[in-house]
Design brief:
alpha/beta, 43% helix, 11 helices, globular, 308 residues, Rossmann fold, 15% strand, binds nicotinamide-adenine-dinucleotide, six-stranded parallel beta sheet, single chain, three-stranded parallel beta sheet
Length: 308
Amino acid sequence: MTARLLDGQAIAAEIRASALPGVQAFTARAGRPPGLGIVLVGDNPASEVYVRNKVKAGNDTGLWVDLQRLPATASLDDLLALVARLNASDRHDGILVQSPLPAAMGKGAAQRVFDAIDPDKDVDGFHPVNVGKLVQGRAHLKPCTPSGVIEILDRSGIAIAGRHAVVIGRSEIVGKPMAMLLLQRDATVTICHSKTPDLPGVAARADILIAAIGRPAFVGPSFVAPGATVIDVGTTPVSDRGVIERLYGAGSPRLAAFEKRGSLVVGDVHPKVADVAGALTPVPGGVGPLTIAMLLKNTLAAAEARAL
Ligand code: NAD
């Protein structure tokens, strides 16, 4: 079997196009576009790329995107002061603080920052109030990556209700909210993590398998039931040529891309899974574009709710 590739770029483009009329209507009504404040602390190269893509997508969709940068030496108090300023601003409808924060800010810094963002502007959906609402099935602003996965499944005609979904990874930003959203759609959900015994055996019972671990090519064919849908959330930069050649083979386009750039983003799912799965999201071009599309949708939703 060769898995059907689920095209995240195309699905994200559909969602962004469907948000356009709402953005235009808001702008005409409010006399200003919906505003998104993005805070980037330090110069983590992966974060630079994510933020650049978010700024571009926001601008292309007609949002006002305000990128606020703080140096890697900024203190947690500096960051909290900036968040307070964005909370108080009339022009910022959404606020996103890019993770990870510099390690020097200390353990627990990210949670303190998420706790400080006005829940009505929390377009990442990480504030405890929004997490609580998500658990209760009444969230207004849902975390972007898991809600993007639901869009991929829905728009690809993959049924969720009554199916067995296995989520590998239990982080606050992907694994846990992913499991909640699948549960709300009447899937039977199993959450796996680093202490789960017989992970391949558990994963292979899934109709829908979500890999959100951050370990390149960890999920091999033995994890996947023939015909299952596999969603690869993982994105890990790999700079070892040997790893790329082993995964994709000499002469593959992926190896050629690696030669050009000196590194490659690799998902959690091994390329050989394409021989077993029924449907599969690629990396890149799968879940990533949806994360950005859902961020834009959340910003519009936050702007509309604040204007009421
Ligand atoms: P995280 O490090 O916070 O969590 C990883 C989870 O995986 C943990 O719950 C851990 O228990 C589990 N895990 C780790 N090793 C394991 C193992 N050997 N077996 C089973 N479980 C294991 O990561 P995260 O923030 O949830 O992100 C996960 C991946 O998704 C990363 O690669 C990240 O870059 C990527 N990501 C992508 C997008 C996107 O838009 N495509 C968005 C967010 C995160």
